[in-house]
Amino acid sequence: MEFKLWSELNVEAKGELKPNLGLRSWNKLSAEEKTRIWTHTVY
């Protein structure tokens, strides 16, 4: 008997295990979003 991983049995498993949180690269952020991030960054 061969043991199959959950990700092999369920197509949506990879999305559960490695969710896309809507993260974008720094270059794709607008100037307003970058300013907001810098405002909340603690040095």
Explain how this protein is built.
The protein has 43 residues and is mostly helical. 44% of the residues lie in helices and 0% in strands. It has helices spanning 6-9, 13-17, 31-40. The chain is rod-shaped, with a radius of gyration of 19 Å. The mean pLDDT is 87.
Based on secondary structure, the structural category is: mainly alpha
Q: What does the average pLDDT come to? A: 87
Assess the beta-strand content as a share of residues.
under 5%
Q: What form results from the Cα inertia axes?
A: rod-shaped
First-last Cα distance: 56 Å
Which stretches are poorly predicted, pLDDT < 50 over at least 5 residues?
A: none
Number of alpha- plus pi-helical segments: 3
Secondary-structure element series? HHH
- Into which percent range does the helicity of residues fall? 40-55%
Write the layout of secondary structure elements.
Layout: H1 6-9, H2 13-17, H3 31-40
Name a few traits of the molecule.
about 45 residues; mainly alpha
Short structural description:
The protein has 43 residues and is mainly alpha-helical. It is built from 3 helices and no strands.
